[in-house]
């Protein structure tokens, strides 16, 4: 019996990151518009013009993709908070900058997202909850101390 050698050629890491980031970005856009539960992996694949199999090469399931999207949103939120804190003239100005950021975020968010996350994606909800009760509370406490 002859043994066949199989060679697997993996794309460069930059391409892997680019594709994963594209998937997360499209998933984010669709989820923000329609809610987590209303968006399927098929919807995301179709919107990206790729197969579901390709998405599953980067994310094992929808839970993992939702977690990655939540982590990205939290990272962006943290960066925005730190930027606002750095440019704010005083504590009150920082509060108004934070309110503007939150208004913009919630204006573009389907209201069912938090409920969907809590019911169907508990790991992602735990990440969100930790961010809310640790990071955001810390920022508020620092702001109050600064006032």
Give structural notes.
The protein has about 150 residues and is mainly α. Helices cover about 75% and strands about 0% of the residues. It contains 7 helices and no strands. The chain has helices at about 15-35, 40-50, 50-60, 60-85, 90-105, 115-120, 120-145.
Write a short abstract of this structure:
The chain is mainly α and 147 residues long.
List keywords for this structure.
about 150 residues; mainly alpha; about 75% helix; elongated
What is the rounded distance between the termini?
A: 79 Å
> Sheet with the most strands?
none
- The ordered string of helix (H) and strand (E) elements is HHHHHHH
List low-pLDDT spans. Answer: none
Radius of gyration: 19 Å
Number of helices, where a helix is a run of at least 4 consecutive DSSP H or I residues: 7
Number of strands: 0
Global structural class: mainly alpha
Average of per-residue pLDDT values: 87
Strand content: under 5%
Residue share in helix: over 70%
Shape label:
elongated
Describe the secondary-structure layout.
Layout: H1 13-34, H2 41-48, H3 52-58, H4 62-87, H5 91-107, H6 113-120, H7 122-146
Helix pairs in contact: 1-2, 1-4, 4-5, 4-7, 6-7
């Amino acid at each position: 019996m002859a043994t066949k050698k199989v060679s697997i050629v993996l794309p460069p890491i930059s391409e892997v990151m680019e594709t994963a980031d594209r998937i997360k970005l499209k998933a984010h856009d669709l989820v923000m518009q329609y809610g987590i539960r209303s968006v399927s992996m098929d919807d995301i694949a179709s919107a990206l013009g790729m197969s579901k199999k390709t998405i599953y090469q980067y994310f094992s399931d929808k839970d993992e993709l939702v977690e990655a999207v939540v982590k990205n949103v939290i990272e962006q939120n943290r960066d925005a908070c730190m930027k606002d804190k750095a440019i704010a003239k005083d504590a009150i100005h920082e509060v108004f900058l934070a309110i503007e950021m939150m208004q913009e975020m919630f204006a573009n968010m389907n209201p069912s997202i938090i409920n969907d996350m809590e019911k169907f994606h508990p790991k992602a909800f735990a990440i969100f909850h930790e961010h809310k009760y640790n990071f955001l509370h810390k920022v508020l406490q620092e702001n109050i101390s600064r006032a």
